[in-house]
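Supplementary notes for students who missed Thursday's class. We covered one full example, reproduced here. Read the sequence, then the structure, then the short commentary at the end.
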Amino acid sequence: MFDEARLREALVRVFREQAPGSKQKQQLYEYAACYQEPALAGWLATEANFGAARGYEKQITGLGRKSFASYYAKNFKDILRQCDEHGVEHRTPMNQTPLMAASRAGNVPLLEALLARGADPLATDHYGRNALHFAMQEAFDHPAFARGPFAAIHELVAPTSVDVQAGERLVRIDRHLAEYFLFQTLWVLFKSRFTHAARRLTCAFDTAAVLSAWEHMPANVVRPERNKRTHISSVLSRNEVDREYAYNRALFWRVAQGWYQFNPALAVRRRVAEEELWLPVYQVLNLPLIYEFTPDFHWDRAQDYLARANLPQPPVPVAAERWVQLLEAQARERAEQEATLRAALERRRRPMAANQEPPADDPPWGTPAAKRLAIERLRQRNARRRGEDKDD
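Structure (token representation):
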């Protein structure tokens, strides 16, 4: 099962230790397809020499569904039998509960059967996503899913509220509020802000991103009057940190004009080992693990967000370690070359006595540097001769 611990172990084995064989590379590739990790697929192709990963864009849909393909079937007796044997909260190979997998597959009858057996809609994976979030991701990516089973799935598994804490203030965001589905939407899209290339390097959201996700949302989930740019902008801005508004819940932080991210000081309620805890929002969303699959042009921004949330700074992603080491070696080599060139230029600026031997460290004959040095010496010699002729 690819929980966080198993995932990090596989990354070390494949990229740092360069373990032989393709089994773990294939497992990481299937993980990249299931969780939509293009950077991981790219590193598998370039750093681990795993040729299959070069077909990521063409294979992502089919391969991403491999781990929960059985959850699409109308006959799901085997799945219920597994729940009876291993428990209704057992995990699939990609660390999803049966309820999460059924939500992602859009299998409403299976969802109802699992809920009747006591399945927990609040159970989460290692990115803090529950059954609703898996269904939302499918609805955002596939219009037929949004127009089809999503409305019924939302009614079955959407939590009645979300509890957050901003400073000392406890806030409950009930399901009927405009902030509720917007908050859930940003939760689902959070990881992709870092792992996918974007129009801006803010790793944040604008109203266009939300409107794109909501394009095919059914009216019972997003009322038509709320599915408008002006309304979304209003909800984001009135819940902005430090905004003067009587019902400001301080949910969002304005990164730049028109671009928002979760308030780094926000905490969310989570149940851990039968204990209710308030945890930093970026910890629950697992930004440190997201960083492992973030391309280099987003590293600085991710580090900044972690610092603002008072979370530890992460090391270089394991998959990119060898690449970073190569870049550092190249940078050192360039620095040494530039230092050598500066020293040579400094020597040329100093006048050379007529009987002075050429420096022992002159560049090799025939190189551009040697040619430039020879021309400079001829120029100096001619200048000295002109001076001697004037004296005569």
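Commentary. The first strand starts at residue 161 and ends at 166. DSSP finds 18 helices and six strands in the chain. If anything here is unclear, bring it to office hours.
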